[in-house]
UniProtKB/TrEMBL annotation:
Protein known as: Acetylornithine aminotransferase
Family the UniProt entry places it in: Belongs to the class-III pyridoxal-phosphate-dependent aminotransferase family.
Record GO terms (molecular function): identical protein binding; pyridoxal phosphate binding; transaminase activity
Sorted UniProt keywords: Aminotransferase, Pyridoxal phosphate, Transferase
């Protein structure tokens, strides 16, 4: 593919279809999706189980208010709740990750009667007034201030600072089990456990934002299961409907019991919940989280062997991988797209992020590693 087929930033124009982990232009040039779908298609593009479920639902009933029981919603509710750790027994659907976090913060406040939110440096939780208030980057926030206040930030991964910040006035601690936008930051062992202990002691709600880490990507259905820590509220979106716009919040009973009125017209509509049920059922029945763990281990080991000292670090869990480069990640992403037909995402200035669909195989991984080795070496 030649240069004139690209718009600035190295993004191929004219992607017309997707299948599995590949995206195709009109002339059938194939790209490996290592981030173009931003963790939203864990089963790969246009997976037949999702396509069939959605098409059937569209033909039968596109919309009815969520106060009416609809089979697809009931099925999705059951499969979502069953997929979450024991103790998270009630759920609410919404339309995005931001909206899920917004609801989580509201639910935590109404269930505890407190207002303070503790969030982490380098966090990303969304861009509405509440979710943005718990998001770290000033660039996203300053022009919109004042936001929904009373948020205290603590350094991500530091158990002592977290323990010191949580007190009787804390409504919630909100954390990504592994930070995504902040650069694929894996916290030290014991950090999530500390978060559990200090919120328990203070009577605060522990919120895990699994918008990017969830749906099998880290090798378990939910990343918090790798650490064996169950929050009071788990939020998710992105891959939940394998590409359809849907989010969800799973909560413990005490959070549901204490939640005040909260709803949205489109929450849990028939079509998106048909996608949710098909996605979760397929992920679980076909054991894709275990495949993600295996492929993640393979890919990480191969990347470390191939990139060696040319990069600062390869880190992550499963198929949520960050490569800390010695140079700018934007340029590397552009080079990968233009010269190697691989679409990856930066996460911050120097971290190149790999977030492929979970269905990649060893040949795809080998292609990624070979291309990255060339890109990294040619840059250094
Ligand atoms: N939380 C996390 C951890 C995210 O990565 C994102 C999106 N990058 C969001 C929340 C916001 O999700 P959405 O864009 O669906 O509103």
């Amino acid at each position: 593919m030649s240069d004139h087929d690209f718009v600035s930033g190295g993004k191929p124009i004219g992607i017309e279809r997707g299948e599995g982990p590949y995206l195709y232009t009109a002339d059938e040039t194939a790209y490996i999706d290592a981030g173009a779908s931003f963790a939203c298609t864990p089963l790969g593009h246009s997976h037949p189980a999702v396509v069939d479920a959605v098409c059937e639902q569209v033909e039968n009933l596109i919309f009815i208010d969520s106060s009416y029981p609809v089979q697809s919603r009931e099925d999705a509710y059951a499969s979502f709740v069953a997929s979450t750790p024991d103790g998270l027994d009630q759920a609410w659907f919404c339309n995005s990750g931001t909206e899920a976090n917004e609801a989580a913060l509201k639910f935590a406040r109404s269930a505890t009667g407190e207002s303070k939110i503790v969030a982490a440096t380098r966090s990303f939780h969304g861009r509405t007034m509440g979710a943005l208030a718990a998001t770290w980057k000033d660039k996203y926030k300053k022009p919109y201030e004042p936001l929904a206040g009373d948020v205290e930030f603590v350094p991500y991964g530091d158990s002592e600072e977290l323990a010191a910040a949580v007190d009787d006035e804390t409504a919630a601690v909100i954390l990504e089990p592994i930070q995504g936008e902040g650069g694929i930051n894996v916290p030290p062992a014991g950090y999530l456990e500390t978060a559990r202990e200090v919120t328990d002691d203070a009577g605060a709600a522990l919120v895990f934002d699994e918008v990017q880490t969830g749906m099998g990507r880290t090798g378990s259905m939910w990343a918090c299961q790798n650490a064996g820590v169950t929050p009071d509220i788990l939020t998710t979106a992105k891959g939940l409907g394998n590409g359809l716009p849907v989010g969800a919040v799973a909560v413990r009973d005490w959070i549901a019991d204490g939640a005040a009125s909260h709803n949205a017209t489109f929450s849990g509509g028939p079509v998106v919940t048909a996608a949710v049920h098909a996605t979760i059922s397929t992920l679980v029945e076909e054991e894709w989280p275990a495949h993600a763990a295996e492929m993640g281990e393979y890919l990480t080991a191969e990347l470390e062997a191939a990139l060696g000292d040319e990069v600062r670090e390869v880190r992550g869990e499963g198929l949520l991988i960050g490569i800390e480069l010695k140079r700018g990640a934007n340029r590397a992403a552009r080079d990968l797209a233009m010269n190697h037909q691989i679409l990856a995402l930066p996460a911050g200035r120097t971290v190149l992020r790999l977030l492929p669909p979970l269905v990649i195989d060893e040949a795809d991984a080998d292609q990624l590693v070979g291309a990255l080795a060339e890109v990294v070496v040619s840059e250094s």
